[in-house]
Write a structure and sequence with these properties.
The complex is a heterodimer of chains A (about 150) and B (about 130). Helix content of chain A is about 20%, strand content about 20%. Chain A has about 150 residues and is of the alpha+beta class. Helix content of chain B is about 5%, strand content about 40%. Classes of the chains: A alpha+beta (about 150), B mainly beta (about 130).
Chain lengths: ~150, ~130
């Protein structure tokens, strides 16, 4: 037990790593050898300094951030082919691959782009046109959402 | 025992730490919308007024959430395990990060009434605000 109710293997493993991606104008990305991922929508919401100060700790900023992103894209969650969720405490999140320091927030984005490009290798999902990506920063009180679509 | 880290005072937070030294809890209240404000700030987070006044409150409240840290959050706290980390909601409505003291683990329940404990960790210099069962 580390901090009730979390045990050691339920806590994301710190890892050393980095991440990089290139954001470009549409006319530039058409010259890319791989399928580009187009940003269809994005959202961000900051609630407070830390969850301690939230009116309700179970109502997190990812809700408003995601609604903003889906609204911008004109799409709904059921339209998505995959969800890349920033989460330090589940196997769908970062428990399965660790958190690469400050680059940890980009792991989901890089994976979404690689999936859209069909470069996911053994992890490749069958349908890979639309991806939802979430991000968490600050002290779990500042969250972002992205909707990406393969061009 | 290693020296434990102590709070760093700033001009903005000094009235709070001065109050604790006198075993008094002073927090800010907005003169314009009357909202209680914690932590210390230059603006009211509700109406953005800059007219905030320091007022004394009882420190009575309820336990909003807690955990027991079985590993020290810093090496200097290794002699305090488990650290009883908590968030308390004062009756004025503000939430405070704090630690619980004087309680067995099985006595601690979310929603329980709590009262302040003034912990003179560096007598005459620094007092910490902790909480225990009311």
């Amino acid at each position: 037990m580390v901090a009730d109710p979390l045990r050691l293997l339920e806590i994301v493993m710190p890892a050393v790593g980095g991440a990089a991606f290139i954001v470009a104008r549409k006319d530039i990305e058409r010259s890319n050898a791989n399928r580009p991922a187009v940003i269809r929508g994005f959202g961000e919401h900051i609630q407070c300094k830390s969850p301690s100060y939230a009116d309700d700790m179970l109502v997190t900023p990812i809700g408003p951030a995601s609604r903003q992103a889906f609204g911008m894209a004109g799409l709904k969650p059921a339209d998505m082919n995959m969800a890349q969720v920033y989460d330090c405490y589940t196997h769908g999140g970062q428990l399965s691959f660790g958190q690469a320091g400050m680059a940890g927030g980009a792991s989901q984005l890089v994976e979404a782009v690689q999936q859209i490009q069909g470069r996911g290798g053994q992890r490749q999902v069958a349908r890979h046109d639309l991806a939802y990506v979430s991000g968490t920063g600050g002290v779990m009180s500042e969250q972002t959402a992205l909707i990406l679509e393969g061009a | 025992m290693m020296d434990k880290p102590l709070p760093h005072w700033t001009p903005k937070t000094e009235p709070f730490w001065e109050g604790l030294r006198a075993h008094r809890i002073d927090i800010q209240q907005c003169d314009d919308c009357q909202a209680w404000v914690w932590f210390p700030r230059l603006h009211c987070p509700h109406c953005f007024s800059q007219r905030l006044s320091w007022r004394t409150v009882s420190g009575d409240g309820e336990l909003l959430t807690f955990t027991f840290s079985r590993l020290p959050t810093l090496p200097q706290f290794a002699d305090e395990l488990p650290q009883m980390l908590a968030v308390v909601r004062l009756d004025e409505g503000v939430h405070m990060n704090t630690t619980l003291t004087g309680l067995a683990e099985d006595e601690i329940k979310v929603g329980m009434r709590v009262k302040p404990v003034f912990d003179d960790v560096a007598p005459g210099d620094t007092t910490l605000l902790r909480f225990t069962a009311a």
